[in-house]
């Protein structure tokens, strides 16, 4: 998330340095893709564009039936088999109209690194932050670099340093939550007997077993508590034991190519800001990674706080703007942790959970239930409480649709216009008064006059993170209040 946040800040010409302890991107199994709102975030910054614009083909009727049948079928129903399919607690859902981008996390990181370089972000690899102090004006970091230790001063520090965040610990922000109850492995490995088990996703007496062929990929999940020592090196033997316990076979692991061990502790920082220190991504929240919420949540954090941090650093806005980061994003984290705990509970082995799953699967055959859960899983439901919406319009706090806008120079999508990271005022009813009202903010807000067939309002003010800050039919005079609230006083009046 560090790279994403750095890009968000750099889009507004604010200098930023990324300190990363790893000398290069680490290729151990992590996220295998992003879905829903996370793909949209990428699209709105022009990231992973070639892949993201691959059209999503709705599943055929036969595929729909197979997805609906879920794990009752012995054949593999991995969601990747069908574009648009998702899983929740290894029960398959369908949301063909919501995009997915099935690429390893490392490719996203590579694309972000390229983007960061283009934006002039200084990325220092092999530099470990070992401590910091802060006062009212600055943060002072102790860094261990390839040429030895040094000090670095900055106005702000964003801890994007993962679930065991040193920044979070040193800032004294509490991290309450629940301990893990599972131990799992995700591995690319070779085994002596490729027929040891049917390929697919399977509920077992002790947990879950996933086996996919060529190249052989495994996920195991057992409900015997968290790993005894999460830092201990992972051995082929412990993974083999897990495979044997779940499959009931004597399979032998002959080679482990890549492997990760995981659990499901669910914790969230009490606040995402302490003075000049912010927390973003896993540093702010950890949870099980089933259904892949980690990157989506972290990317959502980064695009929420990036432009705010830049606005404060540029002197456009006061520091209180940064408090809306916690007030908007913390509740989303709470919801995600809830969903992830529910998902783990639904994967527990045993006849009681079997019964619960059967019941839930019946419900999920109903379109409405399926749509609601997939919207939750894909973060499509998110809206922010931006205070009383009545003066600023009914769409306030909601995510702006990716409207197709017709202008004299052609058609353009809102997502394409947002690639600059600037706010947009969409004038969809050719109201010259709006342009005049927004003119004093022209250094921060682009006014776009266009026609749109499915416009939800005559005019919308869209923040850089895609959320609506003002819309008609609110009184146009209230636009000035919204512009000031989110982007500061007009140029020259601060
Ligand atoms: C097995 C597995 C499968 C997963 N599957 C999915 C999935 O399918 N979908 C999904 O969305 N998510 C998944 N996740 C979760 C996802 O990988 C994380 O949510 C995501 O990596 C969080 O990004 P982050 O930048 O916040 O933290 P991290 O990726 O942990 O990055 C933190 C970075 O900070 C660096 N760092 C730490 N301390 C310091 C320091 N003191 N100084 C300098 N640098 C430091 C680290 O080297 C690291 O590069 C999975 C995770 C695992 C382990």
From TrEMBL:
Keywords: FAD, Flavoprotein, Monooxygenase, Oxidoreductase. Residues 2-337 form the FAD-binding domain. One of its GO terms (molecular function) is monooxygenase activity. InterPro entries: FAD-bd, FAD/NAD-bd_sf, RIFMO-like. Its cofactor is FAD. The keyword Flavoprotein applies. The keyword Transport does not apply. Gene3D superfamilies: 3.30.70.2450, 3.40.30.120, FAD/NAD(P)-binding domain. SUPFAM superfamilies: FAD/NAD(P)-binding domain. This is FAD-dependent monooxygenase.
């Amino acid at each position: 998330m560090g790279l994403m946040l750095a890009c968000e800040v750099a889009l507004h010409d604010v200098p930023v340095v990324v300190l990363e302890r790893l000398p290069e991107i680490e290729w151990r199994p992590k996220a295998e893709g992003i879905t829903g709102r996370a793909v949209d975030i990428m699209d709105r910054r022009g990231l992973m564009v070639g892949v993201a614009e691959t059209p999503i083909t709705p599943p055929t009727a036969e595929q729909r039936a197979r997805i609906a049948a879920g794990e009752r079928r012995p054949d593999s129903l991995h969601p990747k088999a069908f574009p648009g399919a998702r899983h929740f607690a290894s029960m398959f859902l369908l949301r063909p109209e919501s995009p997915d981008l099935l690429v390893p996390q490392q490719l996203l990181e590579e694309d972000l690194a390229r983007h960061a370089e283009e934006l002039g972000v200084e990325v220092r690899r092999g530099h470990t932050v070992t401590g910091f102090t802060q006062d009212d004006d600055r943060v002072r970091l102790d860094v261990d670099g390839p040429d030895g230790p040094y000090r670095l001063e900055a106005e702000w520090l964003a801890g994007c340093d993962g679930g065991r965040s040193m920044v979070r610990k040193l800032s004294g922000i509490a991290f309450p939550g629940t301990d893990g109850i599972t131990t799992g492995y995700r591995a690319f490995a070779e085994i002596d007997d490729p027929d040891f088990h049917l390929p697919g996703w399977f509920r077992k007496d002790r947990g879950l077993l996933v086996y996919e062929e060529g190249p052989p990929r495994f996920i195991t999940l057992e409900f015997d508590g968290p790993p005894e020592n999460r830092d201990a090196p992972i051995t082929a033997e412990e993974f083999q034991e897990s495979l044997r316990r779940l499959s009931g076979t004597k399979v032998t692991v002959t080679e482990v190519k890549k492997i990760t061990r995981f659990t499901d502790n669910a914790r969230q920082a009490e606040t995402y800001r302490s003075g000049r220190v912010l927390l973003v991504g896993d540093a702010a929240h950890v949870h099980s990674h089933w259904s892949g919420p980690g990157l989506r949540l972290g990317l959502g954090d980064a695009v929420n706080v990036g432009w705010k941090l830049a606005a404060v650093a540029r002197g456009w806005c006061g520091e209180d703007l940064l408090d809306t980061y916690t007030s908007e994003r913390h509740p989303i984290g709470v919801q995600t942790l809830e969903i992830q705990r529910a998902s783990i509970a639904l994967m527990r082995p045993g006849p009681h959970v079997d019964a619960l799953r059967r019941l839930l699967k019946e419900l999920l055959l109903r379109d409405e239930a399926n749509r609601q859960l997939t919207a939750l899983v894909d973060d499509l439901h998110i809206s922010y409480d931006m205070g009383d919406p009545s003066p600023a319009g009914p769409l306030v706090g909601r995510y702006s649709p990716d409207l197709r806008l017709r202008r004299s120079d052609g058609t353009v999508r809102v997502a394409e216009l947002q690639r600059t990271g600037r706010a947009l005022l969409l004038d969809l009813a050719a109201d010259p008064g709006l342009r005049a009202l927004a003119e004093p903010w022209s250094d921060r807000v682009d006014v776009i006059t266009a026609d749109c067939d499915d416009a939800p309002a005559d005019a919308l003010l869209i923040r850089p993170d895609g959320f609506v800050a003002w819309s008609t039919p609110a009184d146009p005079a209230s636009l000035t209040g919204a512009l000031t609230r989110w982007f500061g006083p007009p140029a020259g009046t601060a």
